[in-house]
Amino acid sequence: MDIDVKNLHPLEVKLLRHVSLGEKITAERIVEELGYKVGQCNQAFSWLAAKGCLVETGRSKKVLYELTELGSAQKESGMPVERIFTFLKENGPHTMPEIADALSLEKSDVGSAFGLLSKEGITKLNDERKAEVVKEELPEEVRVQRALLDKTVDALEEASLSDAEKKAIAAMAKKRGAASSPFKLIEREEVVYELTEAGSAAKEGVIKANITGEEFGLLTPEMLSSGSWKNGSFRPFGINAPTSRLIPGRHNAYGNYLQWVKDKLTSLGFEEFDGPLVENEFWNGDALFMPQFHSARDIHDVYYVKDPVHCKEIEEPWLSQVAKTHENGWETGSRGWGYTFDHEFTRRQVLRSQGTVLSAHQLTKAKIPGKYFGVARCFRYDQVDATHGADFYQTEGIVLGEDVNLKNLLGLLKMFAEEIAGAEEVKYVPGYFPFTEPSIEVHIKHPVLGWFELGGSGIFRPEVTKALGIDVPVLAWGLGIDRMALMHLGLNDLRELFTPNIENVRTRRGN
Amino acid sequence: MPKIDAPENLFFELLGKKMTDDELINIFPVAKAELDGHDIDGKVLKIELNDTNRPDLWSPAGVARALTTYETGEIPYYDFFSTEKEEQDSEGRMIIDDESALGIRDYSIGFACRGRVVDDDLLKNLIQSQEKLCFNFGRKRKTIAMGIYRSDLIKYPVHYAAVDPDSTKFVPLGLDEELSLREICEKHPKGKEYGYIVSSFPKFPYLYDDNNDTLSFPPVINSARIGAVEVGDSDFFVEVSGPILDDLLLAVNILACDMSDMGFEILPVKVKFAKDTPYGREITCPYYFQKPQKASVELIQKKLGENFTPDQIIAALAKMGVYSICDNGEIYIQVPEYRNDFLHAVDIAEDVMIGHGLENFEPVMPSDFTIGRLSPAEEFSRKVKDILVGLGFQEMMYNYLGSKKEYVDNMHVSGEDAVFIANPMSENYEVIRPSILPSLLESESVSGHAVYPHNIFEVGKVTVKDSSDNSGTKTKNCLGFFSADVQKTYNDAAAYIQTLMYFLRKDYTLAPVENDPRFIPGRAAYVVYKDKIAGVFGETHPQVLESWGCSMPSIMAEIDIDILIGETEEKKEEAVPEIKEDPELLAKWANKVILKVSKIVECERHPEGEKLYILKLDCGEPELRTIVSSIVPYYKREELMNRNIVLVSNLKPANFRGVKSYGMLLAAADKDDDSHSTCEVIFADDFAPGTVLEYEGQPETEKITTYLKADHFFDMPMETINGSVCINGKKIGKDGKFLKVEKYINGNVG
Known about the structure:
Chain A is an alpha+beta fold. Helices cover 36% and strands 19% of the residues of chain A. Chain A has 19 helices and 14 strands. By secondary structure, chain B is an alpha+beta fold. In chain B, helix 1 (8-15) runs parallel beside helix 3. Mean pLDDT of chain B is 92; it is low at 568-572. At the A-B interface, helix 12, strand 6, strand 7, strand 9 and helix 16 of A face helix 8, helix 10, helix 11, strand 20 and strand 22 of B.
């Protein structure tokens, strides 16, 4: 395993520099020689062993007496027996409760300590039943205990103790009545390591790179103000170390794609339009010269609004003109559909089922020449599955101009195919839409998706445009960009475009 | 879109040759057809037809006819059609329509044929034609029902009448007991499916022969004897019935042509109608009923952008099976017997396009210069989104349809403002969302596994009821945001709102929320912008979190960004300010100003002035008047020609770069326009030239004979108020009609 020595922690660096091949490496030794804490030692061992720099060659069990919290306190401020002895010496005879009060000790602790002292003939109760010191020296046992406390840093190894010390420590650990004892008996395994060849190589690397383990970690404001950063070098960071996960605020990837499409279209001179989700049969179908008996206007193809069932009115003169156009062609040059237009049906409210509705609305307020587009949410009476959504976006638009014609329509489609879809080849075939004549479908060869239908288009029928007050030709187009959006996002299920799953959306990327 | 099965053997027999799939895919577009594939054993082609106005293409014979004609350019000829002038011999075959059927289903017509023994493929094909014509074209049999019968069992004439549904009985196809017509509606599968079309009438349609043998109960079911066509039969009677004669004639013609193409001899049948028709009381079917149609060569050239010669057009149409001639710049077409889809000249143009071959048109970019622009809502939304993203929020996008449970019940709201669907497909999609908040909560409810905090938002649409709108509903652009984490409080939400509104430059105030079950009481506030409640935010009520199954505290907010955009909303009528009547001003006006409706009869550019038109006006006076007007930047010549405008006709004549102007036309401008960049000429097309206009209630005054100085005129400022042109708040017009403007409905006039 190749080791990037820059990634080594200072504890590892210092340890590596300190040891050589063939030596026994133990925690005890490193604590003693490098001043590591036992914990630091163990960290360094496990990191280096994981990197293959150290190998375990053996292990042995050790019994240790570890200083407890109580032990640390007693080491600092004295054992109860010591404190009572000193108190009585300095303050003269006192009763037991007085002693307990003055030294904040439990009565039982005072009792047992006094018992010990009295047994050794150091204290006794006087006639007033007060304790007093009669001998100037503490017993041997207590003095050994004090010495033990004094020499313990973290723990004492049992093997290193004399018999007297063992006895004393046992006595300290044995005080059943006391809340706890100053020493705790623990067993610890000591592992013996040796440097491996890889470890040796790492050591060479560390020395060669002149890494000492004494480098600066964090640059602190204090270092800057004192200038101390000038007195050393900085520990290098491993550039390939794993990073932590960030959760940024982000735009939606599908939304970004739609924005991109909108930006493309505006850059091509199109102005955006929009409209409400609730429409009526008039704009959703009648204005588009779809006869009211058209199969696509069936109850199984459009969502009806429950309440209000009808809108209040349809704007004039559009209503009269469209109605007459359906019936007999009005002034559009058409013979019409030849049926009686239903003025109630036309007010029935539906959820917008096609984006072309917005194009029809726009005709009543369009400029000539003019280019318009919309990305419209539409609703279709379909079973929801991977290729059908209950609601979805359609991208639609119109081009109005005195002289626009079929060849311009083909030009426009070619531009969309190249600019928006990145098509390699474009093919046009005759299509059919109730509101355009002629009608064209554009198929493109996409570098990834292959041949597919990019969209439908045509020149609006005069029955549509004239009835809505427009006397110039109007090119109308719609692009099916869902497929490209899915590819762009690396998805294959339309439902994913509108997923509520936060994690999926957070991690989704566009192309 | 109709889809048909075409058995390969039959289809290639009709085509007169075999074709590979690739060849078919290449040529199918001329019939707006797509090859959908083959059936499992590969012997049947699946074809999808895209043109819902071309029922003649919904059969293998029809598709084959279109392809053959396209390839050869030879128009098929059928000799069995009767016309207005020439009647074919019906050899005693006749249908008599009885007047009892009038108002129920007015007509029954038909023809007979013989000469080919029907095999399995052909029988299936006949049933398919029947289905496609009756279902797709005949609106599920409402306007066309069709029956095929064994001609050899029929004793002509056939009678079509409406009869008593209870006493009339026969054995319907598919059953072996005799049922009354009403029983058939109730018991027979076809009766259950189609009986409703006639069951509301007191009498039902009934077809029987001269022996009183039943043919059928149209539009429901054939009889089990004469109406039972089987493999091995070769003599048929084909009948269609319905309320629209042209549709029936077309259906008969299509079927006759198809059967003729398949090798049958077509035998005409005479029909006696029960009432007058555009074709008389009696015709012989198949009957050529179509009228010639025309389109000018110029229209075809303009539509298609190609300078076709008449010969090129005629040749292209021939490939589409359409015979045509050119006379004096007009192309006249003879509509094929089996088509009736030429509604307008543009339909002819499309056939020329297909016949010429779409690949032969060169794509050309439109040359008009136009300015691209995002909608105000989109532009503003992008600002909002950027701020939210900067605050660490993830943008979400949601479906707009959902269930009552999600949008109403889980939110603990009444749902009275929600717009429901009358015909939902499932209860999962039965209501348009009235708020973004449930969408955000749904996210939270399905994303418990995702690392917290959850900071999400959406800018999208919601729809609520709004009785002030024509639709009774209103679609609004809204921002919703939601943040879930331990220790999220009202204060966090308030800080987000504060930051958002600061960067949007929207000053707002907060108002306490009294009763909103979605928020913890005392921990929610309304955002008030320009005296309107623009939004609400606060800590999500635990009862809402519980309903959604969410276990993390959260805050949420919803802001109506249309209210924040405000100024870019569509121009609405403003409350009319109280205008104090100024009798002195009105008197001065009445005595000094003459407004005369004048028609622009000439319009040319001033040679010396870039913005100036020289207009010649018909003011109802013996001579035309000349005025100079600086409206070139706003109007094209053709937008002005022959329009009536309003002339200040006694304005003192003035020179404009060498041309004397005898008056000034009135135009409206935006109220805040100080730079003369807006202009709407006040047109008066509702008034005759020469009409002198006055304000509403103007008293009789002496005839004005003096010139009016321009600065005196401008001392009496006119304006537009909610679309009307006014002086001192009084509308200007004549005889109850008033001048109107469309664009600057609350602006200045000058």
